[in-house]
Amino acid sequence: MAPSLTGTVTGAFHQETPNPTSDPAVYDIHHQKFTSAGLPSTTEGWLERARSVSEILAEDASARDDQNKSPRAEIALLKSSGLLKLLGPKAFGGGGQGWDVAYKAIREVAKGDGSIGMLLGYHLLWSTTANLVGTDEQKDRFQKTIIENNYFIGGAVNPRDNDLKITDHGDHLIFDGQKHFNTGGVVSDLTVLEGILEGTEDHIFAFVTTVQDGITFAHNWNNVGLRLTESGSIKISQVKVPWVNALGWDIVTHKPNPAILSIPFATLLLPTIQLVFSNFYLGIALGSLQFATNYTKTSTRAWPYGGDNKTSASEEFYILERYGNFFAHLRAAEALVDRAGDEAAKIYAEYGQNREVSERERGELAEWVASTKIVTTDEGLRVTAGVFEVTGSRATGKKVGLDRFWRDIRTHSLHDPVAYKNREVGEFALLDKIPEPTWYT
Questions:
Q1: Rounded to an integer, what distance in angstroms lies between the CA atom of residue 3 and that of residue 160?
Q2: At 196, which helix (H) or strand (E)?
């Protein structure tokens, strides 16, 4: 999630009382429907499934945001819908779709509920981590485990904090430390950990079972937006990981495999998740415009003192002008985001097996992604704040819930400053410089 203001976790780890959890039974009728229908078999079927989930979540999104319950029910809905399996190989029971489809599904879910769209996006990234930094054996093993068990994956990989400390104990590793932010961990089945092996500068990623004595959640996520993402602090104490689960490492020599971890393909993890961000920003913005449209047509009153008075708000020039402007800019943003998604899917399709993507190809994808981050941040914040201009003062009422869209984008768009993306794209446009891979690039 978003970085800490100081960049490190300081002070003692304080565990607060967990939030009450939402009840998966509230979606029983939908669980039965999705289970009976089975997984979609076409791309359009997957997107229709995402739209169905979005519509279900949108019905009470404002109330759930206000209640701030741990999203057990919402994760159960993602599970029964099959969306957690969208990227998985068909051989293991997955959807066999590409990232272009996954991004669109994330966007659809975020239209109805930004928090759950974000959780779906992070899950799809973390659940395929072994595809990027694992061996072929690890890739197949973890994909099979995740898909066959319909696991939801969380991640405790906030780069702004100190890295977790990893020590070698012969046949296994021990992870220790804490992170100011993790995403979805409280409601996850598996958690991705990342740290540095003691005595080296080498990073290790590993999947671990979430529910265990060594993992403690602070339950301190109560932020202004994305309130249902369970993105609070986490403490890792003596968590044991077999060497065989250290992604991309040689289990005999206890060394990183350079053919996996020292090539540009492994660093695709970063633009992939940055494009996840752009898609749920865009989804949230599109959701806000649709919500505002319905409100304007049913509840906004025409202004009686303009001199060219109309009988309904939807006839007023300034309201039509604003909606037209918002719609056009979001349509342009959607075209850009889809193009970036196509570029990502193309690289995965071409290099997913041989991992031979070049630095240049990786860098050009990163610039497509950086462009989307700039545009979706700027337009997302503008539209989600601007919709109040076309809905009126009564739309600021808490029971309306129109503010949640802006709060969600504002919260996550601080994850990494968009100003650096502007500079990065400027260097690419002016100097033809591709970015050096970092934790945020």
A1: 6
A2: strand 190-197
- For 155-256, CATH gives 2.40.110.10
Please give the CATH architecture assigned to the domain spanning 24-152.
Orthogonal Bundle (1.10)
Domain 264-431 architecture:
Up-down Bundle (1.20)
Residue 241 φ/ψ, nearest 5 degrees: -130, 120
Q: pLDDT for 262-305, tens place per residue?
A: 999 999 999 999 999 999 999 999 999 999 999 999 999 999 99
C-alpha dihedral sign at 416, 417, 423, 425: positive
| Per-residue pLDDT tens digits for 50-71 | 999 999 999 999 999 999 999 9
Other C-beta atoms lying within 10 Å of the C-beta of residue 10: 10
**Full-model pTM:** 0.96
Q: Which residues pair with 209 in a beta bridge?
A: 190
Q: Which two tokens stand for residue 401?
A: 């819930």
Q: In the chain, how many H helices and how many E strands?
A: 14, 7
Which two tokens mark 17? 């009382």
User: Are 222 and 206 contacting, i.e. CB atoms less than 8 angstroms apart?
Assistant: no
The amino acid occupying position 16 is E
DSSP characters for 128-161?
Answer: THHHHHS-HHHHHHHHHHHHHTT--EEEE--TTS
Which sequence spans correspond to the domains of the chain? 24-152, 155-256, 264-431
- Please report, for residues 75, 76, 150, 161, the alpha-carbon distance to residue 81 in angstroms, rounded to integers and kept in the order given: 10, 8, 11, 34
Q: Three-state SS string across 376-432, please?
A: HHHHHHHHHHHHHHHCCHHHHCCCCCCHHHHHHHHHHCCCCCHHHHHHHHHHHHHHC
Residue 4, amino acid: S
List all residues 6 or more positions away from 134 whose beta carbon is below 8 Å from its beta carbon.
142, 205, 247, 248, 260
Q: Coil, strand or helix: which one is 23?
A: coil
